[in-house]
Amino acid sequence: MGRLREEIRSVAGNKPNLKREDLKKMTYLSNVLKESMFITTSSANGLGLTETKTNLALRLYPSVPVNSRTALKTTTLPTGGGPDGLSPVLIRRGDAVAYSVYSLHRRKDFYGADAEDFRPDRWEEDLPLNRDETTANWGYLPFNGGPRVCLGRKLPLPKAQWLAA
To answer: Which pTM value belongs to this model?
Structure first.
């Protein structure tokens, strides 16, 4: 965490009040938060939280590890069926489709061979996750996505950044 401390020192210095622009300059801090972040009691009180440890883990421990949606119309997923998982899958109107964000965030083909490890530096690398638009948009879902994205998604990250800085 020496790198994180140095980045905070270099951007924040002795400023009594940090601005959003200051936090945006702290890219390594953002990477640490994307991987996992724990807040202790004294820090949590400043956020209005009461639990001893509030886990804001994003990639490794998403707050909603499994989710589901109901199909509004009959459709076909291009892959995922058959013994090899490469055949199409029919989804009928009214079918529930469950997905695991917990598993998605541990995919080695997206996050590398060490996908289960806490390693903030991965976000500065050329991750397979970012090699096509669909995967880049839907391979990292700490707050879900699409029309039902978490309305509070923009609140916890800046608060955690201010807290850490």
So the answer is: 0.68
